[in-house]
Amino acid sequence: xxxxxxxxxxxxxxxxxxxxxLSEDNEIIMFxxxxxISFANCGLPYYVGGVIGNESDLLLQTPESFSARFNVQVRxxxxxxxxxxxxxxxxxxxxxxxxxYLESYDVxxxxxxxxxxxxxxxxxxxxxTVHDALxxxxxxxxxxxxxxxxxxxxxxxxxxxxxxxxxxxxxVTLVEKSDHVMPNMDREMTFLIEKKLHDMGIDLRLKxxxxxxxxxxxxxxxxEYIDYDIAVCAVGTHPDxxxxxxxxxxxxxxxxxxxxxxxxxxxxxxxxxxxxxAIPHIVTGKTMNIPLAGPANRQGRLAADAIMGRDVVYxxxxxxxxxxxxxxxxxxxxxxxxxxxxxxxxxxxxYTHSMPHAGxxxxxxxxxxxxxxxxxGKTVLGAQIVGCEGVxxxxxxxxxxxxxxxxVFELAEMELSYAPPFSSAKAPVNIAGYVASNIxxxxxxxxxxxxxxxxxPAKDLLVDIRTRKEYNxxxxxxxxxxPLDEIRARHNELPRDKNLYIFCRIGQxxxxxxxxxKQLGFENVKNLSGGFMSYMEAxxx
Length: 541
What we know:
Strand content: 25-35%
Radius of gyration: 27 Å
């Protein structure tokens, strides 16, 4: 077969290498409008900040090395500008000599990727290609110690850009139009992230977009002006599929290519992978664009298998993601609460705070975990974690649980490695499973920090069951103190005609107190999920 591949990097280059491993007989031609067919685009922000020292470290394969190893014709500076499915041809423009020509195919694989959204044109840089990173690093190095940077957008690229530009010695203002950074996460899980940005000296402006950029001045939505030397736009991407217009290849309203379980498009002999495709979210079932390197790599491999007639099925993706911010690690898997609401999927949630290793072993800091699951506990729907050490391990375990439709009870039963420097006998994932299992079983009724402002003192009583020392160091306003170890002796001090809302530091003692009070005949008792620590995070204490 003669197989043409439009675009390289994670999807196209992976597919080309897999196709060659499956057969030496195919003619494979890859078209790439840029210089590079395989580079570490996820590493670009770290090149800007100097963590990755050399440009060559970003290049996974050069066109020459890839061609030599896999016997693939690599045509860089060649832009595919039209697809003619009826004739099984593509129209290609040679950028260097401005010539256009038709190339025929037996099979066409589309991996055009996505391009950054940038409404500000040349007034703002983007961070998508190696050239983008080179230019931004050069500007940062020339501005060290005196420059002012404006980063527009508080998602993954925006936060990574802000961190690495700040590491170059520039002052950074980060603006985000929504009410929180990291839009793939739920609001309450971003409080610690925003505090970290503040601690890093980054000026964060939420619920604030940019109206206009010109000559070093940015006009914000609130009509405030900010001076800047460097502006970076990181508000997202959209599929790079304009060249498919009039091709008959079905796309979504936003231009993402629709594919089936074999990554086949609506046109015969044409497949598509990577950041330009629309795929099912494995939790919600809704078709959506998930532009991440992991799914693109898997799609490239599976599309090559499908092209070669192997029996494969691509189930979709969940969008597992992780981010480093200074010494903090932020990660998510599966669906967020907002995504579940929009999909109409019933769910409940729990918050836990766990050490990454045994508490008595030196070092380690708490990680905050939000777990989303069906009300019966039979399916884990999503997880979000903010912490430091151990977050990567925990999120990957949650991701496996979500992919395999595991229950919260199975999380509790997972047998995981344990030694004091690495984990606990009850690992953070186990703890999340225990807590969620108790909620799903009806053994544990909880309330949340968001419920506190709605409590009515005439009907509801907050009860702090921590120690007096903890209470004196700060509590939720209006809370009565009744330490856990005194509940059996003093429970008659509690009113039986009110709803009792109890809390401890992280929720564990609260569960013990909840069980005691229920068995002492108190009907209306709930424990604060995540405890006082979740309250402190929410109010930036």
